[in-house]
Automatic annotation (TrEMBL):
<keyword id="KW-0479">Metal-binding</keyword>
<feature type="binding site">
    <location>
        <position position="251"/>
    </location>
    <ligand>
        <name>a divalent metal cation</name>
    </ligand>
</feature>
<dbReference type="GO" id="GO:0046872">
    <property type="term" value="F:metal ion binding"/>
</dbReference>
<feature type="binding site">
    <location>
        <position position="424"/>
    </location>
    <ligand>
        <name>(S)-malate</name>
    </ligand>
</feature>
<protein>
    <recommendedName>
        <fullName>malate dehydrogenase (oxaloacetate-decarboxylating)</fullName>
        <ecNumber>1.1.1.38</ecNumber>
    </recommendedName>
</protein>
<dbReference type="InterPro" id="IPR037062">
    <property type="entry name" value="Malic_N_dom_sf"/>
</dbReference>
<feature type="binding site">
    <location>
        <position position="468"/>
    </location>
    <ligand>
        <name>(S)-malate</name>
    </ligand>
</feature>
<keyword id="KW-0560">Oxidoreductase</keyword>
<feature type="active site" description="Proton acceptor">
    <location>
        <position position="180"/>
    </location>
</feature>
<dbReference type="InterPro" id="IPR036291">
    <property type="entry name" value="NAD(P)-bd_dom_sf"/>
</dbReference>
<dbReference type="InterPro" id="IPR012301">
    <property type="entry name" value="Malic_N_dom"/>
</dbReference>
<dbReference type="GO" id="GO:0051287">
    <property type="term" value="F:NAD binding"/>
</dbReference>
<dbReference type="GO" id="GO:0016616">
    <property type="term" value="F:oxidoreductase activity, acting on the CH-OH group of donors, NAD or NADP as acceptor"/>
</dbReference>
<dbReference type="InterPro" id="IPR015884">
    <property type="entry name" value="Malic_enzyme_CS"/>
</dbReference>
<dbReference type="GO" id="GO:0006108">
    <property type="term" value="P:malate metabolic process"/>
</dbReference>
<dbReference type="InterPro" id="IPR001891">
    <property type="entry name" value="Malic_OxRdtase"/>
</dbReference>
<dbReference type="GO" id="GO:0005829">
    <property type="term" value="C:cytosol"/>
</dbReference>
Length: 571
């Protein structure tokens, strides 16, 4: 056991002593240690006879649990097993995931969590987190009171409408907040007793789900418009009243709601939208590492996006901010960004639906003669031929759109094309890394949203970085808690991106993980991000000033590790 483990704090420090006894303890995943309860605890807590006599250590238990995990054949079965373990004994679950992060992260998170959301009703076993359904809106306060943890510091909330690239999964979307919060704990050291996954069940427009006799959600089409925003406001105001300091992360909301909700609430509490802002930070961080590896300047590159949605527009704005930070004027920076959506290049001669897309529209006079035919629609291929980008980012949720022709055209225009097909889960990716390597003859620098093994091409190994917001949000959460920041500023997100790129630089060359540091280092990376975020919060005036040393100590103190601690009984 490492020293880091021995000195770390656990949620049991906070929970123990307990007034519970007997089965009530074994039924509580935050308290249950199973066969690891000592003889003294078994006597004191009323557990005698409820457990087999041999007393085990956490390491012994982890060995058995890993054997059991390895016996399952499908990834979904492994997911169900790990989720059951989490609901039975959280410390054992976190120890397992911590010790086998590279193997288990894709099982509890992207991509397998996508299938788990689609089949959530079939595989449902036991309650976790809170479901707040529209018909129960008058009970919101009571529902929040019913949360198991009483000192909630981080909430991830979804309404299930845009689950990865899999669309509307209704109440099944709950898999996403559960998975994200597991990463907050294992990668960012956030005590699981202080986290809370929430699903706002506002109905679903997914016919398959509604017709499914096993569907666990409210069987009703989605509410929308004013009703929707009133319901969301009831929720957010109740959260502010109950936990005014909480970090509220919005996750996997549909395009029409994501930005308006962020704009409405970002000045009311400590909140951010992970798909817009977390994704932007991880992508800018990875891009900074990529341009360095390609030995080019970001400000001299054109950047083309496929998908002008929440993620695409969020990333684009942060690239513009990075270019401005590096010396361009904002107007010049905007000229480098080309957003291609369903109807081709977004330009001001067409009707762009949303203000956040309009802000990124190219001037039609500049691109008028780019169209291959007489229509005003300018395809991705035409944009690449004309704009000669070095960077291509896919956030369309549509598989296969980075075709051989597209990748070859990218390779024709630049020595080291930077190609990021970021759509999740794996089946939604714009192009498989192996194809991108082949079509670019090994020249492309690649990062994907879902995990991929290294590609072997002509005898050389090409590691594929996983540019997923999971590299960012655990560190942001840790930085906010440690610095007690009251808001999430744009500066804090940029600080997170820069800290990630610096961590990447320190690792590049030695790692198997390409442009980003290896997952095994994620906790160190999260601490670096947390420090940068906390310092930026202080400079932005949303956290009290301290010295770097004090902030660093606070981060280390806050950082939770999965260890057992003695539990005492209290009447
Ligand atoms: N890697 C990551 O960390 C990360 C983070 C966020 C989102 N994503 C992925 O990115 C994808 C999009 O997420 P989002 O939140 O932006 O969704 P969104 O619904 O807000 O945006 C998707 C956009 O793609 C456009 N689109 C659809 N079909 C298209 C086509 N054929 N050609 C061009 N554009 C098309 C849509 O019109 C929409 O504007 C999802 O698959 C999601 O899983 C990845
Ligand atoms: O959940 C992920 O894997 C990343 C991102 O938040 C997404 O919605 O795809
Ligand atoms: Mg998401």
């Amino acid at each position: 056991m490492t020293e880091e483990f021995n000195t770390a704090k656990t949620q049991l420090d906070i929970l123990a002593p307990t007034s519970l006894s007997g089965n009530a303890i074994l039924e509580n995943p935050l308290l249950n240690k199973g066969t690891a309860f000592s003889e003294e605890e078994r006597i004191e807590l009323g557990l005698l006879g409820l457990l087999p006599p041999h007393i085990e250590s956490l390491d012994d238990q982890a060995l058995r649990a890993y054997e059991a995990f390895s016996m399952f054949e499908t990834e979904l079965e492994k997911h169900i097993y790990l989720r059951a373990l989490q609901d039975n004994n959280e410390i054992l679950f976190y120890r397992m995931v911590h010790d086998h992060l590279t193997e288990m992260m894709p099982i509890i998170y992207t991509p397998v969590v996508g299938e788990a959301c689609q089949k959530f009703s079939e595989i449902y076993r036991r309650s976790r987190g809170l479901f707040i359904s529209y018909p129960e809106r008058q009970y919101i306060e009571t529902i929040l009171d019913n949360a198991i943890g009483k000192n909630i510091r981080v909430i991830v909330v979804t309404d299930g409408e845009r689950i990865l690239g899999l669309g509307d999964q209704g109440a099944g979307g709950m898999g996403i907040p559960i998975g994200k919060l597991s990463l907050y704990s294992v990668c960012g050291g956030i005590d699981p007793a202080t986290t809370l996954p929430i699903t706002l069940d506002v109905g679903t427009n997914n016919e398959e789900r509604i017709k499914d006799p096993l569907y666990i959600g409210w069987r009703h089409s989605r509410i929308n418009g004013e009703q929707y925003y009133e319901f969301l406001d009831l929720f957010v105001q109740a959260v502010i009243r109950k936990w005014p300091q909480v970090v509220l992360q919005f996750e996997d909301f549909a395009l029409i709601h994501a930005t308006p909700l962020l704009e409405k609430y970002r000045d009311q509490l400590c909140t951010f939208n992970d798909d817009i802002q977390g994704t932007a930070a991880v992508t800018v961080g990875t891009l900074l590492a990529a341009v360095k590896a390609a030995n080019v300047s970001l400000c001299e590159q054109n950047v083309v996006f496929l998908g002008a949605g929440s993620a695409g527009c969020g990333i684009a704005e942060q690239i513009i901010a990075a270019m401005v930070m590096l010396g361009l004027t904002e107007a010049d920076a905007r000229r480098h960004i080309f957003m291609v959506d369903r109807h081709g290049l977004v330009h001001d001669g067409m009707e762009a639906k949303f203000p956040f897309q309009q802000r990124l529209a190219q001037s039609y006079t500049r691109v008028a003669n780019w169209s291959a035919d007489s229509s005003q629609s300018i395809s991705l291929l035409e944009v690449i031929k004309q704009a000669r980008p070095a960077i291509l980012i896919g956030v369309s949720g549509q598989p296969g759109l980075f075709t051989e022709e597209i990748i070859r055209e990218m390779t024709r225009g630049t020595a080291t094309p930077i190609i990021f097909p970021l759509s999740n889960p794996t089946a939604r990716i714009e192009a498989e890394p192996a194809d991108v390597i082949k079509w670019s003859d090994g020249k492309a620098l690649i990062a994907t949203g879902s995990p991929f093994s290294p590609v072997n091409y002509k005898g050389q190994n090409y590691p594929i970085a996983q540019c997923n917001n999971s590299y960012i949000f655990p560190g942001i959460g840790l930085g906010i808690l440690a610095s007690e920041a009251s808001r999430v500023t744009d500066g804090m997100l940029m600080a997170a991106a820069i800290a990630l790129s610096e961590s990447a630089e320190n690792d590049t060359g030695s790692s198997e993980s390409g442009l980003l540091p290896p997952l095994e280092d994620i906790r160190k990376v999260s601490k670096n991000i947390a420090l940068a975020v906390g310092l930026q919060a202080q400079s932005d005036g949303v956290a009290s000033k301290t010295s770097i040393e004090i902030l660093q100590d606070k981060i280390n103190e806050t950082f939770w590790e999965p260890n057992y601690h003695p539990i005492k009984h209290q009447l």
